[in-house]
Specification:
This protein has 196 residues and is an alpha/beta fold. It has a single domain, classed as 2-enoyl-CoA Hydratase, Chain A, domain 1, CATH 3.90.226. It is built from five helices and eight strands, in the order ββαβαβαββββαα.
Length: 196
C-alpha cells in the first residue's frame, strides 16, 4: 500500500511534489531548519519556479509533522507567496496543521493565518501560539546533567488561545491512518477552488 503524502519523506526537513491531475503543489515543511543538501532559500526558489512552469490552482503547505526549530527561516516563503496573488487567496492556499505541529511551526502557522489568505485545515496544534521557546542548554558542573531552558517568549497572536485552531476541522482517526487515507487532502480537493 502506498503511504499518503503526509507520511512520505518524513526524514527530510522539506520537500514538494506537483500533483498534475489535481493541479496542486504540495509542500511538506517537516522541520524548521536548513537541509544539509539544499538551503531553504534555494529550495523556495525551486518551489516557485515549479509554480511558474505549471498550472497550479492549489498550493498546500503541510505542517502536520513539524515540531519546530527556527521560526525565522520561514519568512522567505511568506514573502514569496505574497508575490503570487493568484495563489494567495481563499480556496487556493491551504495550510495543514495537526497535533504534531509544535513550537516554531506554530509560529509559522500564525504567520500564514495572519499574513496570507490561507485556509487552515486539520486539527488544533499541540501548543499555544504565544509561548516560551528558543531553547538553550547548559551543563551542571557537579552532576554533568544537561539542563534545557527557554530563552525567549514569543507573542505573535493578539488573542490567547490553547492552540491554533483550523478553519476546517478534519480529525485524524485510526481507520484513516491504517487505511492509508489522508482525509485532510481529500477535504482540500473537495473544497471549492474558485471561492474568493
Amino acid at each position: 500500500m502506498n503511504q499518503p503524502l503526509y507520511r512520505q519523506q518524513m526524514d527530510k526537513p522539506y520537500w514538494y511534489t506537483y500533483l498534475k491531475n489535481e493541479k496542486t503543489l504540495y509542500f511538506a515543511y517537516n522541520q524548521c531548519k536548513d537541509s544539509s543538501d539544499k538551503p531553504f532559500p534555494t529550495f523556495v526558489d525551486e518551489l516557485f519556479q515549479t509554480v511558474e512552469e505549471n498550472q497550479v490552482q492549489r498550493f498546500i503547505v503541510d505542517l502536520r509533522h513539524n515540531a519546530g526549530g527556527s521560526s525565522d527561516l520561514f519568512g522567505i516563503f511568506i514573502e514569496k507567496i505574497k508575490q503570487h496573488p493568484e495563489l494567495n487567496q481563499k480556496g487556493r492556499l491551504y495550510v495543514a496543521i495537526g497535533r504534531k505541529t509544535f513550537s516554531a511551526a506554530v509560529l509559522n502557522a500564525v504567520q500564514l493565518r495572519d499574513e496570507t489568505n490561507a485556509i487552515l485545515i486539520g486539527e488544533p496544534t499541540s501548543n499555544k501560539p504565544n509561548h516560551f521557546g528558543q531553547v538553550d542548554r547548559f551543563m551542571l558542573p557537579a552532576s554533568g546533567l544537561t539542563v534545557s531552558h527557554s530563552t525567549k517568549y514569543f507573542h505573535p497572536s493578539r488573542t490567547e488561545t490553547e492552540s491554533i485552531y483550523p478553519d476546517v476541522r478534519v480529525p485524524l482517526i485510526s481507520y484513516d491512518f491504517f487505511a492509508g487515507k489522508d482525509s485532510v487532502l481529500e477535504t482540500i480537493f473537495g473544497y471549492p477552488s474558485d471561492e474568493k
